[in-house]
Design a protein that fits this description.
Layout lengths: L7 E8 L4 E6 L5 E5 L6 H9 L6 E6 L2 E5 L4 E2 L2 H4 L1 E4 L11 H6 L5 H10 L15 H14 L4 E5 L7 H18 L3 E5 L2 H7 L2 E6 L2 E7 L5
Parallel strand pairs: 3-9, 3-10, 7-8, 8-9
Antiparallel strand pairs: 1-2, 1-4, 4-5, 5-6, 10-11
Helix pairs in contact: 4-5
Length: 220
């Protein structure tokens, strides 16, 4: 079943040191990608969606919920937005094992076992993050995001440390989750092939502004 249309609505601005993020964006798909050069504002846009930029102005609505409305005095803090967030540096808790990192999302042992097998890191559950490779940390961070049962999934260069074969497998897991749970997803990447794996609509962000749209068919 296809996710309902038009559940991501962003009309927001954020002043940065070297440019202004100024986005008027209402994609017609729930599986969208943002591509563009480094420094164009892709990660900043994800931070606005996640509520990590309290200086952002405008409106952010996800699946009919208003998370930001500057004129209306609405700002939902990050911990109330229920975001599945996978940043570039993974942000795993260094003092916890991988099992404990995943359990922090509120998942049951059975759910942790299932996701760790799907994402190919079940043998790593007793390790600490510092003993993992970059690709392993990315997969664990992705697993934790999925286990949190998010209202919105935000992926920032999620496959940068994975080889091509593993990218295909992990992308398939993510796409199955998004379709089953009808979860809106925004993925940002400088790699258009990664965007095509996950999204069926891709946008280009340059110097803080979304400049074009190109419909693309991903795995869903």
């Amino acid at each position: 079943m296809e996710a309902k249309q038009g559940s991501i609505n962003v009309y927001a601005s954020l002043l940065r040191d070297v440019f202004e993020l100024n986005v008027s964006w209402n994609p017609t798909s729930n599986k969208v990608a943002i591509t563009g050069p480094s420094g164009s504002g892709k990660s900043s846009l994800l931070r606005v969606l996640a509520g990590l930029e309290p200086a952002a102005q405008g409106v952010v609505q996800i699946q009919g919920e208003t998370w930001l409305d500057t004129e209306g005095g609405v700002f939902v803090p990050p911990w109330e937005r229920k975001i599945g967030w996978v940043p570039q540096d993974s942000l795993l808790f260094p003092h916890l094992s991988i099992q404990e990192n995943l359990a922090y999302a509120g998942a049951s042992p059975l759910e942790i076992t299932k996701v760790s097998e799907l994402l190919h890191f079940s043998v790593l559950l007793e390790r600490r993050p510092r003993f993992l490779s970059g690709g392993e940390r990315q997969r664990v961070a992705l697993g934790r995001a999925l286990l949190s049962r998010p209202k919105l999934l935000l992926l920032d260069e999620p496959f940068s440390a994975l080889d091509r074969a593993l990218r295909l497998e992990v992308a398939s897991v993510v796409c199955d989750y998004v379709q089953e749970h009808q979860t809106p997803m925004v993925v940002v990447s400088h790699d258009e092939s990664d965007a095509r794996l996950l999204a069926n609509q891709s946008w280009v962000l340059v110097a803080g502004r979304i400049t074009s749209e190109a419909g693309q068919q991903g795995l869903l």
